[in-house]
Amino acid sequence: MSQNQEDPSQSTPAAQEESGNSYQKVTDYTIQIATDNSRNIILLARQQATWLENAIEEARAKLETANCEFATWWFETLIQIMVVELDRCRSIEAVHGTMVITMEALMQIPSPSI
Which segments carry the region annotation Disordered (predicted)? Predict the structure, then answer.
């Protein structure tokens, strides 16, 4: 073994603790980034849901005044598509809400000592 390489079995408790602290810092940072990303996704999903709700209302109003079969079909189809997308936005919001709760719980768990 070269002089620059240490045998892991020979490392001191202080070195092991420092390594554990570095690992914990990286883990905490990674969890924080994942939490922030999920919060941003929640905000985007809420914005998209609000836009879709408004668009659905507008399409329903136009459907009431549609005066031909094609226009009726078009607005009904459009509304169905937007309702599916709205459900998708709500699912995304719920999933990422659960992820935020999980990540926050992980941050509360004390790290094991080495």
Answer: 1-23
